[in-house]
Automatic annotation (TrEMBL):
Keyword Glycosyltransferase: no
Biological classification of the source: Bacteria, Pseudomonadati, Acidobacteriota, Terriglobia, Terriglobales
Transmembrane among keywords: yes
Domain of life: Bacteria
Sequence intervals crossing the membrane: 28-45, 65-83, 103-122, 134-159, 171-190, 196-216
InterPro entries reported for this sequence: DUF2306_membrane (IPR018750)
Keywords: Membrane, Transmembrane, Transmembrane helix
One Pfam family per UniProt: DUF2306
Protein name: DUF2306 domain-containing protein
The species this protein was found in: Candidatus Sulfuritelmatomonas gaucii
Amino acid sequence: MKADLAETFQPTSAKAPTQRSSWLRPKYLLFAFIASMYTYVLWHNESFLINRADPEWLHIAPFKWLLLPHGLAAGCALFLAPFQFSERLRHRFAKLHRVMGRFYVGGCLVGAPIGIFIQNFNTVHLYHNDPVEFSLTIASVFQAGIWMFCTLMALAFILQRKVQLHRQWMTRSFACAIIFLEVRFVQGVFNLDFKYIEIIVWSCVAAAVPLADLVLHIQETLRTRAATAKTTRAVVQVG
């Protein structure tokens, strides 16, 4: 009887810490932080979309018809990207995962080039080739170029059914996509003047891929440790 009770309660006590710790996985913490950036930027930077009296409408009036396809395409990519990293969605709804992936690629390839054009329009027509705006135009070229390159690499590898390499390049692609959020989040949270915008933008562009690789490295390290610990426990139980 005691043995039966021990077998009954042992799995529950063993599983409890695992269930609790699963909510504290680095992946979830990272995406929670990214979600906070989404929320902040939507509230502080994009709220003019639902407020016709916002002075931002005067600023975007000259290129508003370019901003519409850019915003829809890039916004679609930003919205869909986090779902592409869901293992449950990928396993249970593989077709939906592929469809959203196609929309993500399309959003990137449409939104990124239009973003360059809009920034260049600002530089030439609104700011009359201001040096800072010209620097931001070059930064937008780099950002869009790296984003499209990483996205196309991810697409190429999944077409070759090289899933692991596809995931790695999708991580890099997403890191480039959220530069849009990072710049506005950093500037707003730290209340930095526009004179710092050039430093913020270039820093975010330069750090995107290295940070993605750091995340990949940490993920692989944690996965290796978990596999090693599991093997060790199996050996001890057998012994």
